[in-house]
Design brief:
Blueprint (H helix, E strand, L loop, with lengths): L8 H31 L1 H5 L5 H32 L2 H19 L5 H4 L2 H29 L7 H29 L2 H8 L1 H18 L6 H9 L6 H8 L1 H10 L1 H20 L5 H29 L1 H23 L4 H28 L6 H18 L1 H12 L1 H20 L10
Helix pairs in contact: 1-3, 1-4, 1-6, 1-7, 1-9, 1-13, 3-4, 3-6, 3-17, 3-18, 4-6, 4-9, 6-7, 6-17, 7-14, 7-16, 12-17, 12-19, 13-14, 13-16, 13-17, 13-18, 13-19, 14-15, 14-16, 15-16, 15-19, 18-19
């Protein structure tokens, strides 16, 4: 199904750099909102009231982008499968960047009333639309240029954009926490990471405009006209691959957003940690995610995609039992330990996905198939994860959040169990 065509080393390096840099910028944009949702979106954009209610409102706006992401995946996937990967990736980056910068310019609830959260929701939808077209194209740029036996390794480069973007986002908020008073941060300081995105997007556009089209896509166009409606082909002819790929990603999303967005809100609002302290915890923990991605990518090329991802979902299932005793303890070694374990598990599952999801679909509909699958999983595993976790804490305590994580891991394990091994397809 997926064949590999070697490219000159210089060209391969350029493409891998572009897939990494662009994805890192997109993840930075996405994560600064996630961090802001846990720290400041509630009091800035919603009426005064109970902090818990404001936090739930902020997490609800966080979920909007995940609803938009499959729409963006279908839209950009359509053009990515018909006109090419390069132009589509440039457009997705621009939409994401403009939406992010404009969020930093919005008025607050105190000055504009309900117009402020309404505009915030629209721009958050724009973030999700752009992000929905990003990952699939970046993964294809890497994987469709990989030499034989190296697809999973090449596929980790867009995946590495996730921890790098997260570290950039958290470092920005950490610096602001040390440099500004809480009043200044809530008044105007939170806007700076959003406005800084304009510079990063400019860098990303410069890199991506120098891309060349992937050889596999060129070969597919040379053989036949592109699909008129790639999404229809994916839905009607690749239903099983789409469903299994979607459910396979659920655990990955759940453990990540429970270990970051939910944990940040819980740690600062319930456990009483200062914002700088908990942001520092998460910056340390995300290094374990960055470690897990290349290790699992290497292992997936050596042992296969299924055993690597299944081992990660089993580990995540075990973490469900540890979440309450460790994160709920309030003890900093246990809290930090859980964050490190959770993000390592996420990286271990996430690494092979750069190759696995594209390998489930033929070249002619691969952009649409991989993107839709990846982003549908975001709705199931991530969109409501912080909101549901916060609600579960209110209803039954932190142990219920662990049960939620365990269920998500079990779903992904079963999906991968039913999935074919894709490592040698097309070789």
């Amino acid at each position: 199904m997926l064949q590999t065509t070697p490219t000159p080393p210089v060209s391969a390096r350029r493409i891998l750099t572009a897939s990494f840099v662009g994805t890192a910028i997109e993840f930075y944009d996405f994560y600064i909102y996630a961090t802001a949702a846990a720290l400041v979106i509630g009091p800035v954009f919603f009426p005064p009231g109970e902090p818990g209610v404001q936090l739930l409102s902020a997490f609800a706006t966080f979920a909007i982008a995940f609803v938009a992401r499959p729409i963006g995946a279908a839209l950009f996937g359509h053009f990515g499968d018909r006109i090419g990967r390069k132009a589509t990736l440039v457009a997705s980056l621009m939409i994401m960047g403009v939406s992010t910068v404009l969020i930093g310019c919005l008025p607050t609830y105190a000055t504009a009333g309900w117009l402020a959260p309404a505009a915030l929701c629209i721009l958050r939808f724009g973030q999700g639309l752009g992000f929905g077209g990003e990952w699939g194209g970046a993964a294809l740029l890497a994987v469709e240029n990989a030499p034989p036996g190296k697809r999973a390794w090449y596929g980790i480069f867009p995946q590495l954009g996730a921890p790098v973007g997260f570290i950039l986002a958290n470092t920005c908020f950490l610096a602001l926490s040390f440099g500004l008073s809480p009043e200044s941060f809530q008044s105007w300081g939170w806007r700076l990471p959003f406005l800084a995105s304009a510079v990063l997007v400019g860098v990303g556009l410069y890199v991506r405009l120098k891309l060349t089209e992937t050889p596999l896509f060129k070969a597919a166009l040379a053989k036949a006209e592109p699909e008129k409606v790639p999404l229809a082909t994916v839905v009607t002819q690749h239903t099983r691959a789409t469903l299994l790929g979607t459910f396979a990603m659920v655990a990955c999303y759940a453990v990540f957003y429970l270990s970051t967005v939910f944990a940040l809100g819980y740690g600062t609002a319930t456990l009483g940690y200062s914002r700088p302290a908990f942001l520092l915890f998460e910056c340390v923990a995300v290094c374990f995610m960055a470690l897990g991605i290349p290790l699992s990518g290497w292992a997936a090329d050596r042992f296969g995609r299924r055993p690597v991802v299944m081992s990660g979902t089993l580990f995540t299932l075990c973490l469900g039992f540890l979440l309450g005793p460790m994160l709920g303890s309030g003890s900093w070694p246990l809290v930090l330990g859980f964050l490190c374990l959770g993000l390592f598990a996420m990286g271990w599952i996430f690494g092979p996905m750069g190759a696995l999801l594209p390998e489930l679909f033929p070249t002619r509909v691969r952009y649409t198939g991989a993107s839709v699958t990846y982003n549908l999983a975001g709705i199931l595993g991530a969109s409501a994860a912080p909101y549901l976790a916060q609600s579960l804490v209110s209803l039954g305590g932190i142990a219920w959040v662990g049960a939620y994580l365990g269920i998500a891991a079990a779903i992904s394990f079963l999906a991968v169990l039913l999935m074919p091994e894709t490592m040698r397809q097309g070789v």
